Amino acid sequence: MPSRSNYLDHLASVPLFAGLSKRELQEVARAADEVDVAAGKEIVTEGRTGHEFFLILGGEAVVKRNGRRIAALGPGQYFGELALLDRGPRSATVVASTDMRLLVLGQREFAGLLETLPGMAAKLLRAMSQRLRDADTKAVN
């Protein structure tokens, strides 16, 4: 399993966190918890309100939408980042296909980070703006 210092590389690969400094990434890692999940457990459920972001440290998961498998996720991949920004419904169900270790950041902890590190908010807005631009470009094409 990765050490806390290795989390930074994984966190930096998440578009939402890509513009953050090493210090800010360390604060994000510190605010998060490591959680073990057994194979077969439903981690998030499509349509239910989201409250956490998940970074996969070990193990694999299956992503399903409308009951159909649409993706597989493994170490270094993530899901649920939009739940940090709003309380919207989950867009898919994620089920652990093996035993997993996750780094979990809750909405409350994330809000606390934004209060303690105000410069982080501007960087996150830029990252989300880029994500919207990319989505808009894909929708047009």
Map the helices and strands.
Elements lengths: L3 H9 L9 H10 L1 E5 L4 E3 L7 E7 L2 E5 L2 E6 L4 E2 L13 E4 L3 E7 H10 L1 H23 L1
Antiparallel strand pairs: 1-8, 2-7, 3-6, 3-8, 4-5, 4-7
Q: Roughly what fraction of the amino acids lie in strands? A: 25-35%
- The arrangement of helices and strands along the chain is HHEEEEEEEEHH
Tally of strands: 8
What strand order characterises the main sheet?
1-8-3-6
Task: Average the pLDDT over all residues and give the rounded result.
Answer: 88
Please report the number of helical segments.
4
Q: What about the largest sheet?
A: 4 strands, antiparallel
Structure description:
- This protein has 141 residues and is an alpha+beta fold.
- Helices cover 37% and strands 28% of the residues.
- The chain has a four-stranded antiparallel sheet with strand order 1-8-3-6. A four-stranded antiparallel sheet has the order 2-7-4-5, with no helix packed on it.
- β4 (61-65) and β5 form a beta hairpin.
- α3 (107-116) packs across α4 (118-140).
- The longest helix has 23 residues, at 118-140.
- The relative contact order is 0.22.
- The model has no long low-confidence stretch (mean pLDDT 88).
